[in-house]
């Protein structure tokens, strides 16, 4: 196909375009050791999120969740932390449950909240705080639905 002269000119162009590696030298062991500690990243070093930042982040996530999978995933992530979410976060979660038309997840949110708090008084305080949204959305508690099991 190609003649020998065309082939050799193409090869010469390709070789001319490749940068020369002769000018690059290996760094010495001492220079590597002095650079290495600066390049190590401490993986445990991260930003400590405050409770207010946590609350704001999950409020936004529940506002953005527009399908059942996202609502349940966000609820799971929210309850996986070693703290009890603020009532405002629970309210946004209940509104998200209503938006995706999922009553069982709304009921389970209160069930998860009951297991997350330390005592019955805290749970009752959450129920009192969220009474209006529960009435507005028509959400019953598991204790009300299954009184003989509680």
From TrEMBL:
One of its GO terms (biological process) is mitochondrial electron transport, cytochrome c to oxygen. InterPro entries: Cyt_c_oxidase_su5A/6, Cyt_c_oxidase_su5A/6_sf. Pathway: Energy metabolism; oxidative phosphorylation. This is Cytochrome c oxidase subunit 6, mitochondrial. The keyword Metal-binding applies. Keywords: Heme, Iron, Membrane, Metal-binding, Mitochondrion, Mitochondrion inner membrane, Oxidoreductase, Transit peptide. GO terms for cellular component: mitochondrial inner membrane; respiratory chain complex IV. GO terms for molecular function: cytochrome-c oxidase activity; metal ion binding; oxidoreductase activity. It is a peripheral membrane protein. Component of the cytochrome c oxidase, the last enzyme in the mitochondrial electron transport chain which drives oxidative phosphorylation. The respiratory chain contains 3 multisubunit complexes succinate dehydrogenase (complex II, CII), ubiquinol-cytochrome c oxidoreductase (cytochrome b-c1 complex, complex III, CIII) and cytochrome c oxidase (complex IV, CIV), that cooperate to transfer electrons derived from NADH and succinate to molecular oxygen, creating an electrochemical gradient over the inner membrane that drives transmembrane transport and the ATP synthase. Its main location: mitochondrion. Component of the cytochrome c oxidase (complex IV, CIV), a multisubunit enzyme composed of a catalytic core of 3 subunits and several supernumerary subunits. It is found in: Mitochondrion inner membrane.
């Amino acid at each position: 196909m190609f003649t020998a002269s065309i082939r050799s000119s193409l090869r010469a162009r390709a070789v001319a375009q490749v940068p020369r590696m002769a000018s690059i030298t290996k760094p010495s062991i001492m220079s590597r050791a002095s650079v290495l500690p600066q390049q190590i990243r401490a993986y445990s070093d991260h930003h400590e999120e405050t409770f207010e930042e946590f609350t704001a982040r999950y409020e936004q996530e529940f506002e953005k969740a527009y399908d059942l999978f996202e609502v349940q995933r966000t609820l799971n992530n929210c309850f996986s932390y070693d703290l009890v979410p603020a009532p405002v976060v629970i309210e946004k979660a209940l509104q998200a449950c209503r938006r995706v038309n999922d009553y069982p997840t709304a009921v389970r949110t209160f069930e998860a909240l009951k297991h997350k708090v330390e005592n019955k008084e805290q749970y009752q305080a959450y129920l009192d705080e969220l009474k209006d949204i529960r009435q507005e959305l028509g959400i019953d508690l598991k204790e009300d639905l299954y009184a003989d099991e509680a």
